[in-house]
């Protein structure tokens, strides 16, 4: 399936996209993710390394994008909001579905800002994280 912006997508549609691009799904709308810059990758990698070291012997796991986080009360395939936080921590293993995605808010999220992502991260994604605690 090829992506059409503003179509009213669900997670079912999202996982069937085959145009080899990365998206996030926010309230049924697709948002194309730009390739991260070198500095973005370096910051994410360094933070991930520190967090991985901290949580290594603890019951929580640290994840790095791309890894889907589903937000919503609907059944998984009908969810209309799917984010890929740069880094996140999950302590409640029941939120993980066979390592394919996390259903529900992670315990800790880091979004590394880039010039192309400021509006999405500060407005759209922040509101989602806030809503789902």
UniProtKB/TrEMBL annotation:
GO terms for molecular function: endonuclease activity. SUPFAM superfamilies: Restriction endonuclease-like. Pfam families: Uma2 (PF05685). Residues 15-131 form the Putative restriction endonuclease domain. Keywords: Endonuclease, Hydrolase, Nuclease. This is Uma2 family endonuclease. It comes from Caldicellulosiruptor changbaiensis.
